[in-house]
Amino acid sequence: MSTDPILSVQLDNGLTMQCIDQSRKIAADRWYICIWIEIVVCVDKKWFTHFFMDEKKYQKIRDLLGPSVVFKQKHERNFVSEGEKAQIIETICQHASEMGRTYFCHADFPAKYILKCLHAKQTPFN
Which domain of life is it from (predicted)? Predict the structure, then answer.
């Protein structure tokens, strides 16, 4: 298993999306395919241009979340044959790249994800 990205996509909003392969062999010719999609979002006031954000609220967010949050999404397939492995990994990465160009690249994605993380931190059991 490696933590090196197999695909790195620069998004229109300035963020970078990475696909990280965490696949492993589970039998003689069978694989567990696990691709993580990761986007590091710096907690920065620049993301909140479309939201009202005074200095006090921004500082509270920084205090609770720290300097950055990481969006993670896992894509997995189990018991994949050796011959299908490369094609499945390519398909997952291609789908992630398409999502990057349509959803993750939106200008409001960083602010909304930061606010989602803030809400999860404030209400962890809901």
Answer: Bacteria
Instruction: Give CA–CA dist 16/107, Å, rounded.
Output: 13
Whole-angstrom distance, CA of residue 30 vs CA of residue 88:
13
> By C-alpha distance, which of 42, 38, 39, 46 is closest to 65?
42
Write the DSSP symbol of residue 100: I
With tokens 């710096």, the residue in question is 42
Q: How far apart are CA 101 and CA 82, in angstroms?
A: 30
Per-residue model confidence as pLDDT tens digits over 7-21? 999 999 999 999 999
Backbone angles phi, psi at 56, to 5 degrees: -65, -45
Asked whether the CA dihedral 76, 82, 85, 87 is positive or negative, the reply is negative
